Amino acid sequence: MIKVYSEIGKLRSVLLHRPGNELENLAPKYLSDLLFDDIPYLEKAREEHDVFAQLLRDNGVKVNYITHLLSNTLKSNELKEQFLNEFLDLSDINNKYIREALKDYLLNMNISEMIDKLTSGIRTNELKLKKEVFSVKVRKSNMDIPFFLNPMPNLYFQRDPVAMIGKGATINRMRTPARRRESMFMEYVLKYNEDFKNTPLYYDKKLPYAIEGGDILIFNEKVLAVGISQRTDPEALEILAKKIFDEYDDTFETILGFLIPAKRAYMHLDTVFTQLDYDKFVVHPEMQEVIKIFGIQKKDHDEYTINEEKGTLKEILEKHLDVDKITLLKCGNGDEIAAAREQWNDGSNTLAIEPGTVITYDRNYITNKELKNAGIKVIEFPASELSRGRGGPRCMSMPLIRDDI
Ligand SMILES: NC(=O)NCCC[C@H](N)C(=O)O
């Protein structure tokens, strides 16, 4: 079951990925292609991630690991092969010999080993081929990309590839090929796992427009906010609105498109703006100046109105959340350098586990202090390694069930 009608309702069940060998397959020459700026130290990253998962459990949250859910879903050989075929298609493995060799190699593994291999990546020197083939030989000697299957180092950012909204989910088309295969993991769980298989799907990764979960915020059961950003196209929001308003008739009536600058530091809406409590948000100070907001409002069947929202961010939030006074706390306490530094390390990417209680990285101590001064309960944990992937506690988690607020 999926039930997520807010950003702050008591979190009951969440999706995570424990970082694995995919991080050991990062190397400087293709780091930026894989959307990393640095290489985390796996052992420490795992320790930090385990602390995060335990904090969630200690607070009554059920932690579900995506790789476990997927291996429990791909039980039949038929489904396992179907998954693998689609994965190879999305990895652009069109060469007959390479494809055959990969299939032989992977289908002989048990399902957990296969999933671990797919996430870690498969190097060109790892496969034994039955005979020498020209194209394979050439590919193997191309040391710029030493993989047949690239690793999936961004998988620990479970927020982005699939997003739970209300009673349904979007299967996202990720902006770059580096992350496109990630959406398949939860897609298969939502389509074929007994516990999830009736979930309405509000977006399909085969659509031509990009949308990523870090851009989707759920204000309440009536209002969604979607960043139009480096990672999300306005056309995707239009398709989402149609699905939610008309086809599946979920409770949402308004979708607010937040136009944010298309740059790496901002990446998704949740890297500059997250909700802490009924009436409190943390924001990157620059965001208030640069943002424009367009609202799509449900009218009659198949019809909606479009308005540019007037007023400051605070006023627009007060109107749509129906709260008298919204407080916007500034990342880095508004200091230009502290704000930029802490936002880069995801100071404004908090995960609310109930109204007024959030999980954050301890390194963003200036922002955390400001939150505490405003009466927020801040649960901090160390993340020197995890933060190198440019995502915080919200980016690393996808709520599956929250209590209503
Ligand atoms: N919601 C988020 O902001 N997720 C962080 C994703 C970081 C990842 N390295 C990326 O560039 O996609």
From TrEMBL:
Molecular function as annotated in GO: arginine deiminase activity
SUPFAM superfamilies, A to Z: Pentein
Protein's UniProt keywords contain Cytoplasm: yes
Pfam families in the record: ADI
Catalytic activity: L-arginine + H2O = L-citrulline + NH4(+)
Pathway terms, separated by semicolons: Amino-acid degradation; L-arginine degradation via ADI pathway; carbamoyl phosphate from L-arginine: step 1/2
Any one Gene Ontology BP term: L-arginine deiminase pathway
Annotated keywords: Arginine metabolism, Cytoplasm, Hydrolase
Keyword Cytoplasm: yes
InterPro entries, per database record: Arg_deiminase (IPR003876)
Catalytic site: C395 (amidino-cysteine intermediate)
EC number: 3.5.3.6
Subcellular localization, as worded in the UniProt entry: Cytoplasm
Enzyme class: hydrolase
GO cellular component, one term: cytoplasm
Main location: cytoplasm
Family affiliation: Belongs to the arginine deiminase family.
PANTHER family: ARGININE DEIMINASE
Name recorded for this polypeptide: Arginine deiminase
Originating species: Oceanotoga teriensis
Gene: arcA
